[in-house]
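histidine kinase (Demequina capsici), 763 aa
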Amino acid sequence: MAEPAQRQRRIVVPVALIAAGLVVTFLIDLAIQFPIGMTIAYALLVIAAMRTDRMSLVIGTAAASVVGILTAELIDHSSTASLTITETEHQVSRAFQVAGVVIIAVLGVADLRRRQLVARAHQERDSSALALEGTTARLREEQTRTAALAESIPSPVWLMSQDGSLAYANDAVHDYLGIDPVHLEEWLETVHPDDRDWVRQATLEGVTSRTVFSHEARYRNAAGDYRTHVVQAAPMKVGGITQWWSTAIDIEDLRSTQEQAARTMREHLQTLQAIGDGVILLDHGQRITYVNPGACTILGRDRDALLHHTLVELYPYLEGTALERAFEEVVHTGHASHLVHYAKFAARWIDITIAPAPEGFTGYMTDVTAQRELERTREQATRLESIGQLTGGIAHDFNNLLTVIAGGAEALADDDLPAHSAEMRAMIAEAADRGAGLIRSLLAFARRQPLHPEPTSIVEAVVGMGPLLMRTLGDTIAVTVDIAENLPLVEVDRAKLDNAVLNLAINARDAMPSGGHLLIEARLSSSRADGAIRALDLPEGDYVRLSVTDTGVGIAPELLPRLFEPFFTTKPLGEGTGLGLAMVWGFASQSGGTLSVVSAPGEGSTFSLHLPAVAAAAAAAAAPATRASRPSATGSTVLLVEDDALVRAVMAAQLGGLGYTVVEASTAPQALSMLEGRPDIAIVITDIAMPGGMSGRELADRARLARPSLPVLCVSGYSEEALTADGWLGPGMDYLAKPFTVHELSAHVTRLLGGDSPGTATA
């Protein structure tokens, strides 16, 4: 396409020029005749010269002028026929003159055009020079700013060319490396030998691809230490040449921090895996995303069964409970929520804290069943202690009443009464005796019953009760006895131990109305190794655990805290007094141990007596108690001190019946006054708790200051243990518990007046 166009142009341009020449010649011819025409022709030539190639124009114009003049003469021959040859020559001469002028004019115009073009070229050259100078200045300014920025960076910064040479390096390169590298290979000398080859390869690959590249490697600093750096390089074109700005950032401390954080995380994870407490993570939908082994144990399921489930999905009964509300509280408040929840699925108390977390919730769970049991035991002990104190006070007052009733009934036994009256007296005496037994049970619960502890073998005690247990339990209950070998002895009141085991067996029988299985077992346990013992809040040491387990109906959890309270029973109305377990608990506590229970509805019950073991003890044979015979009157004078008039009257009658002379006093100060004026008083019988600001003990002390050998018999509704705990009884003193028979009163008085050692009240 280009060659035909050029050929066409070579043809068209000359033709156009010839045509232009003809036109100009015609105009010149007109100008010869008309001067104004020459002016116009000149103007047209100037315009033509400015629009086309000057050489073609000159040649074309000259040729056209000559041809045009000749043609004009030929055309106008009719008008010029009269001219002479001379005129014709003259005209031709003029025509050539005019053509010369035209040529000169055209050349002048062309030269003007040339000068214009040259001037324009010089102008453009000057502008380009100015632009180049401005660009150079701007580049120089940018380089200055870039260098200043690079120098302000504390990390090494350098500019690397494609051939590996370093076109620039900031001061940090020298300060940090201790060298001034001019080539990549020198820089690579600072790389750790183990990293050098792959760093070189990575750098060459980045340079070849002309892309951003980076790597982590160990570089040697000026001190000779290798530290981990992140090196980054970015390509930049400068004048068509690609160079790489590079920087090295020391991340050794960051790496150490990350490694330390990773170690800490591993340690924390190991701790979470090892602790017994449960830790779970949940997402915003309350689905479990992490669970440690402790949580698996508490929740009673393995890890796979827990993950990706909500707690309500796993345990539907939780819906609408305090645990579900705790999650809502965390969402609304943004703060942790705490609760203690009874997990029905495990029959355990769980202390739960729900806290907000970035991904949802964090749950902390602790099995506090043992702590709750300990708290319950302490609360129960405190409550029972309060009840015991109240019971002890009431028992004292009841014993005073029973003393009067029993004493009166016994006094009537010596009279000849009609048959009906004698029967009524016997009923009164029996009721008084049963009342005394009830009071003894209350005192046992209140831990104020007199005990006679002795080293006792659990094996002998249980085996010795075998026949009694078989008769009591009946044929529908199978009994198994499992006692560990080499059990140490326990120091307890054997009779009270038998009574406690019998009470537990009867309770087990009543819990199995359709029959079942009863297991009696004994084991040695230590508070140092047995968490169950520690949970009972017992002193540190070894204990013999005597347990009675049944397969009965079990006991509801809400009833367990009240189980050892006096007069509380789970049996139907009229089938229980509510004192059996209270007596057993009182006996165990008074013996230095306790009574515990584990039970659940439908799963039976286990009652365990925990009794302190003794390292070595010899069984002491106790002499059988003998009933004192009724002695004859001795004539001795007795000072009877009792604030209760009825009790004082009955005792005075009993003592008088025994042949003693009785002097009565209602208060301790009154008794002291009588002692001062009655040297014939041979013995003082005094109640312990009396009004007036002076107790029976203080009376005894004051009386024995004046008469050290004066015998004193203390009478009270409280137990001997309560009186002797602080060394209450001294030499020449004895204690008699209310209510008592006249024979017991006679035996104690006789023993004191005869100089025997203090005795104890008989049952």
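The CA atoms of residues 524 and 544 lie 5 Å apart. Confidence is low (pLDDT under 50) at residues 30-46, 66-111, 617-633, 755-763. ok done for today
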